[in-house]
Amino acid sequence: MSDCLGEWCERIREAVARGHQLAIVGGASKDFYGRPWSEACSARLSTLAHSGIVDYEPSELSLTARAGTPLAEIEAALASQGQMLAFEPPHFAGGATLGGAIAAGLSGPRRAAAGAARDFVLGAKIIDGRGQPLAFGGRVMKNVAGYDVSRLLAGSLGTLGLITEVSLKVLPLPAASLSLRLAASQGRALELMNDWAGRALPITASAWEDAGEGGALTLRLAGSRAAVRAAQRELGGETLELEQAGAYWRHLRDQRAPFFDAAPTLWRLSLDSTTPPLDLPGTTLIEWGGALRWLRADADHKTMHAAMMAIGKGAHATLFCASLEARAAGVFQPLGSPLLALHRELKRRFDPAGVLNPGRMYAEF
Amino acid sequence: MMDAERKADSRQAGVSAAAIAALSAILPRRCLLAAAEERRPYECDGLTAFRQLPDLVLLPETEAQLIAVLKLCHQLKLPVVARGAGTGLSGGATPVAAGVVLSLAKFMTILEIDPLARTARVQPGVRNLAISEAAAPYGLYYAPDPSSQIACTIGGNIAENAGGVHCLKYGLTVHNVIGLRVATMAGEVLEIGGAALDAPGYDLLALLIGSEGMLGVVLEATVKLTPKPLLARVLMASFAEVAQAGRAVAAIIGAGIIPAGLEMMDRAATAAVEAFVHAGYDLEAETILLAESDGTPEEVGDEIEAMRKVLEDSGASEVRVSRDEAERLKFWAGRKAAFPAVGRITPDYICMDGTIPRKHIAAMLTRIQEFSREFGLRCANVFHAGDGNLHPLIMFDASQPGELERATAFGTRILELSVEMGGTITGEHGVGIEKVQQMCAQFSATELELFRGIKSAFDPFALLNPGKVVPTPRRCSEYRLTGSAK
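Output (structure tokens, whole complex):
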């Protein structure tokens, strides 16, 4: 395995020397996400060969694995010990790896209740843009020695370093889980989800969809048996069959639900969960208690970004799925000038020659 | 060595009269402390062993003044140390010679509580506990609860990524702050995150939180509020052997339980505490564990019973459950008063903050007892056992020649052992100036170089809190010559 790391260090140094750029790829399950690699990015560096769980001790609540390890393998190992990745990373079409999950920084249905991918990162090993192996953080729950580089990597789309190993905090699987479905309009569903989130209810996922007659709100309750039963009684609605419920949340996580089938252009809007229904064209699916809104619409960048600016409080739009040309024009909400300058400076510290996934996040770096 | 450093510092030119005049043009007289007796309270933070009288203390009252001060200091290349309540334990707010202290004490306004969105927008000088008090009418609170929460400010919590006794379940500051408005050393304002989740671009919140005031000055923070659990109860278990308590901690986690709090205290700590607050601790026990459960009454009932069984199976000689809220608070009062309680029985103490994998807790305690004999100094141990975060309190008398040096050497041994065991030199108190040296044990030269790079991306002239956290290459090569380093 260490051969592989030595070889990658060498490849990065060589790319620097020759002025090449490298496209870092794991399971290629998220190739559709982010700005496309530039034409100059001819060489692919696959992490798949660097695979396997390095350390997993259930009573330490931490797991360390190499970047190329399939998420499915990690989740199976955790499940056999009654544990899970609480941020529920999407697998999409399958084959997703740990390195890719952290580089993309995406979280699934449990995000609003449990936290994001970055919240569970304890440590990481990387190779920087000079071809140097570096290690940050560790395997313990608390660590404030130096700047938190390992969390910074989550969502950096491989632009700061080639992630080679990650340590994560893991959590016990809930003792009980069940899913409910209630009829509710979008506005009513948003009110309910925000109201419930302010009370100690064991809601670990929520999704509202336009279901013909006004819409349906699906909730997942998980926790101790007593708490789940009490919440079920209080919230009412129809209880889903266990298998049906499992499939529903898995399909939502991986975007295999019918909502995601239709139009090719998909916007992902992150905003204050209490924001009322948006006055934007297209169809909507809401997750995370109102904080995440998927919008299937052929809206242009300018319209969407302006709509987010108008909402404020950090609201931002991502062009999640679209044609190559549309994605090349920009995927993420544009950064203000001081923030953009800071991003370029940071990129320069990690990858001075710009060899690692340049332009994958923003065209400017 | 410290005295030598201090003398070297005093040889440097102080803040010039011209600089003071320029700052006086920005700030009203009451916001500028120049007399020695006014500056004296700022000469150290909670790490009182290190002191440096600042040349000038500035207490701006408005954001415009604060930004103008930063711009001017940037222009004059004047070092700035931002300061909250000064309760930090690692010297993160220790002033630097020929620099100014920038106190955020006047930024005490809670700007907004949004009960429906479960967020609070606050200024940096707002006290940690004040946020929870303001949120209480809505059944909400701010989860991270460092022991100093009555006094410490959210700005300082952000700088240090503060934890507390409930962070295994509810997270650290980095998990509970969702937006920041920050000024850079150049006086530029950055808006990062907000009520919306997962801001675009790099996760600058992760970088800024825990950056010990070296990357920016917090102007405003948006924090997450958590619904108050309906009920909380705490178990207190006594153990005759440290190893049993260590195994009990692993067994609770292994049973799929994430307690709201899981704390360990050794006999030296309970003795000091009992004399101080009369918390009802078992003084016969070698170690006691406090394990808290919170949630709905049904959940708490189930979890308390499950934990009681694990504790008894692990060999606890006695297990008590808090009967009511008053008793629960009494059990915790002892733990929260541990530092001042130890302060009563010794002229001086230093508090270590290493974190290790939980499985090594018993082995670490045994080694600490050996170090205690070796260095001839007493040590009381309070641990955030659920997180593997240690707080050995090494007792000494600074007036006795050589005791401070022995205490420091004792602490260094604990930190190096923490790294060897797969842990870290600091779990929640920060590196500050106290542990700059030990950073060389945890990080390689190239890793430290990247830290310097990150610092320079925010603050190219290294004016904001200089000399903290990241050691100079020279300091590390000296350390490597004398000690065990990475």
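The first strand of chain B starts at residue 32 and ends at 33.
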